[in-house]
C-alpha cells in the first residue's frame, strides 16, 4: 500500500514512501483508513525499501514477515483522499531479522508510529 518510494542509495538507513488513500481500499471503513491500514502501510514501506536495496545489490529480495510490532501509537485516522507520507529507519539487522522504526503522517500531522521486527526468508 504505497504509491512511490524515495530513498538515497548512499543512505542505507532511511526511506520514505507516499500513498493516496482510495475509497475502494479494503482497509477503509466509513470513509476512514483504519489503524490496521496504517500498520500495513508502514510495513510495506519498509518491505519495498528492503526489496529495492537488495535488488540493486544483485541479491534476491525474498519474502519478509512481521514478527513483532512494538510501541504502536495511533494518533489520528486519515480520511479517503489524504496522502500518507511514511518514513522508515532501519535501526538494526541481526542475521535475518530487521528492526525498523516507522512513522506515517499526513498534512503535517503524525498519524501513527511503531517499531517493526521483520524476519526475512532466505
Characterization of this structure:
- The protein has 122 residues and is α+β, with helices and mostly antiparallel strands.
- The chain has a single domain, classed as Thiol Ester Dehydrase, Chain A (Roll), CATH 3.10.129.10.
- Helix content is 18%, strand content 50%.
- The protein contains one helix and eight strands.
- The chain has one helix at 35-56; strands at residues 4-6, 14-20, 28-29, 32-33, 63-74, 83-94, 97-106, 109-121.
- The strands form two sheets. The chain has a six-stranded antiparallel β-sheet with strand order 1-2-6-7-8-5, with helices on one face. It has a two-stranded antiparallel sheet with strand order 3-4.
- Strand 6 and strand 7 (97-106) form a beta hairpin.
- The mean pLDDT is 93.
Brief summary of the model shown:
Helices cover 18% and strands 50% of the residues. It is α+β, with helices and mostly antiparallel strands and 122 residues long.
**Number of structurally distinct domains:** 1
Q: What separation lies between the terminal Cα atoms?
A: 23 Å
Q: Report on the biggest sheet.
A: 6 strands, antiparallel
Please count the beta strands (DSSP E, at least 2 residues each): 8
Q: State mean pLDDT (0 to 100 scale).
A: 93
Number of discrete helical segments: 1
CATH H-level superfamily: Hotdog Thioesterase
**What does the overall shape look like?**
globular
Oligomer: single chain
Q: Determine Rg (CA atoms, Å).
A: 14 Å
What do we call the CATH topology? Thiol Ester Dehydrase, Chain A
Strands ordered across the widest β-sheet: 1-2-6-7-8-5
CATH class: Alpha Beta
Amino acid at each position: 500500500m504505497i504509491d512511490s518510494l524515495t530513498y538515497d542509495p548512499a543512505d542505507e538507513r532511511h526511506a520514505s514512501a507516499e500513498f493516496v488513500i482510495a475509497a475502494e481500499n479494503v482497509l477503509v471503513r466509513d470513509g476512514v483508513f483504519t489503524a490496521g491500514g496504517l500498520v500495513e502501510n508502514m510495513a510495506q514501506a519498509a518491505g519495498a525499501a528492503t526489496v529495492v536495496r537488495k535488488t540493486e545489490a544483485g541479491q534476491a529480495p525474498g519474502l519478509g514477515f512481521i514478527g513483532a510490532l512494538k510501541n504502536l501509537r495511533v494518533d489520528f485516522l486519515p480520511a479517503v483522499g489524504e496522502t500518507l507520507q511514511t518514513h522508515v529507519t532501519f535501526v538494526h539487522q541481526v542475521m535475518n531479522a530487521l528492526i525498523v522504526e516507522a512513522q506515517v503522517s499526513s498534512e503535517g500531522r503524525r498519524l501513527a508510529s511503531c517499531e517493526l521486527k521483520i524476519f526475512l526468508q532466505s
